[in-house]
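Known limitations

Structure tokens in this collection are predictions and should be treated as such. Users comparing against experimental data should check residue numbering before alignment. To illustrate the layout, the record for DNA-binding transcriptional regulator, LysR family is reproduced below. The input appears on top and the generated tokens appear beneath it.
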Amino acid sequence: MELRQLRYFVTLAEELHFGRAAAREHIVQSALSQQIQRLERELGVRLLDRSTHHVDLTPAGMAFLVEARQILDHVGRAGQAARNAVTSAPTLRAGIIDAGYDTMPKILRELQRTHPDITIHQVEAGTPEQYRQLADGRLDIAIGYALQAPAEVSSKLIRLDPLGVLVPDGHRFAEPDGVPVAALADELLLLGEEEQTPELNHFVITLCRAAGFAPTLYEGTVQSSRAAADLVLQHRCVHCVPSSFRTSNRPGTTWRPLIEPATHYPWSLLWHQDNPSPHIATVIDRAQHLAERLGWLEPISPATGPTPVGEAPSVVSPTARASTIRPIPER
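Generated tokens:
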């Protein structure tokens, strides 16, 4: 039994509506339903009566709700007590999505290099969980897709990350310099775990639809970047990920950028607007210096700027269209 399952159940018990509960938890409705079903299987009882238009708690569900709320309250108090014990230390609590994505780790290494007095606590969590931890003060700063962040979360664009596809060596995509987005229509496409990177998944699906097709998605799920690379190595699918996906250097796999259009995923630093930590400004400053040094924002053209919020998710580099691309061999 996981704490997130308890939290999901409590939220659903309060809303009695899967759609509203999923929105509160910043996850898709199917993910919420799956977690509730897993919880019921583990307990061996039915917690909810479900119908097409109605959700009610069973007697077992009502009894479980009382205890679940107490558990979550105790966990919250325990965390606050631990934080209160170290308030005198200069600490920064930073969220990272997955060890396979290198943007935030690079920023934190730069911060540690220039400010060795700051103690950094890294918390690995998906973006929905990072939003919750920003809201309740367990995180000072996080990273994600600003368009999907709650209204009370401030953001700073820090990287335009080339989007590409991870394939096994010998795949037809491994030889060309770039892969047209439309070519993904003939592939089985692996997305990330929905509770880890829902915004990236939506970004990729929207990109495919803008290219005129609905992607064929691999039905399984993966819990880590290493597991995703394993599926690619087994020739079971291809994986659409940004260049910051560090396992793209894994032996036996090849990462190639998407072209037509050349597309970049926008990573932003995120923090709660009421967070008083003095280290947030320091992190942003170091991240901006790092972005300038590594050219993270160079894909933005001064004349055109990034794609406006809510439009098709592509930022096209003028040089990408002018380059010579070797053709993709037929399957």
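For this record: The domain at 3-84 is CATH 1.10.10.10 (Arc Repressor Mutant, subunit A). The mean pLDDT is 84. Please report discrepancies through the issue tracker.
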